[in-house]
């Protein structure tokens, strides 16, 4: 089994690696763009959050319009399409609200995240207490519940800090992803030079 899977991996590598190696520069460009985005997000977190909200607004409006078009043009009876029209109207309204009041949209999103984390944490704490005689190391579940609850409370108490942390998390991911893609691009370039 190991021989056949090793042979299969070699065949796949022989087919996949040469085209990737020839286009190593695509990975380099992707990596540099990700790094640039991460740096901009770190230095301009408010503008980054605002841009995300605007993208959501555009998405929601477009999605709502398409849902409305589907409801109007559908071939079923009106009773079968009312929900699609409602979704369309709600999508357009949500998109317009996000566009007109981006700060309120960010606050509402972070409040939802904070409430979810708090409820999740409390439920996990209750579960850990009830399961303490059934499982070993229930303290890990309890600790996770406490962390989730604290996170939720912090986000609810200071939503601005939560927004900033969210942007920094995205920026960190973009930077790490970009560095990995740049390293990969140079490895692929080395393979292309050997071929």
How large, in whole angstroms, is the Cα Rg? 24 Å
Query: Low-confidence segments, ≥5 residues, pLDDT <50?
Result: none
Distance, first to last CA: 30 Å
Overall geometry comes to extended
| Count of β-strands | 0
Q: Into which percentage range does the β-strand content fall?
A: under 5%
Decide which structural class fits the backbone.
mainly alpha
| Rounded average pLDDT | 83
Q: Helical proportion? A: over 70%
| Tally of distinct domains | 1
- Largest β-sheet summary: none
The ordered string of helix (H) and strand (E) elements is HHHHHHH
Number of helices: 7
Question: Notable features of this structure?
Answer:
7 helices, extended, 195 residues, mainly alpha
Please characterize this protein's 3D structure.
The protein has 195 residues and is mainly alpha-helical. The chain has one domain. It has seven helices and no strands. The chain has helices spanning 2-22, 24-43, 45-73, 82-100, 102-130, 138-157, 159-194. Helix 3 crosses helix 5 (102-130). The protein is extended. The model has no long low-confidence stretch (mean pLDDT 83).
